[in-house]
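User: Sequence in, structure out. Go.
Assistant: Echoing your sequence, followed by the structure tokens.
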Amino acid sequence: MPSDRSKGKVLPYLTDEIIEFIKQAPFAVLSSSDSDGNCDASPRGGLPGFIKVVNSKRLFVPDIKGNKLFQSYGNFASNPKAALIFFMPGNNKMVRVNGRVKVLEKEEANTFFNGLETAFKDENTELIQGFLLDIDEAYSHCPRALQFSNMWNIK
């Protein structure tokens, strides 16, 4: 069973510490599944803070043109639940956020979007849509997995 300390860190909103971490994170993995439980994990990257904190209960996640398979968006059509785990290179801390998705078409997504916040751009680098994640749970994740992997020190 999880300790009381572990259980107590899972909150239904973003704390100031979690907001600051998200604003500094250049990378996240989005997890989703369809109504049958078929899962997908999709990497998301950009300059630090590319995923926008709208407020303590909502995030905006831009969707920059990629492989056009839209697995996550297909999942959202039958199951609006999703999760994000945020990473910061060199930092063994992680942040996890779970919630419910509202898909935004390009025009509406542009109201949350401040332009392409990517370190790499090519002819396909453009916003095509996005989504809002209404937060059910948010918490800092135990650093043990990254410590076990020594990921930030592998050459």
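User: And one key feature?
Assistant: The chain has a mean pLDDT of 92.
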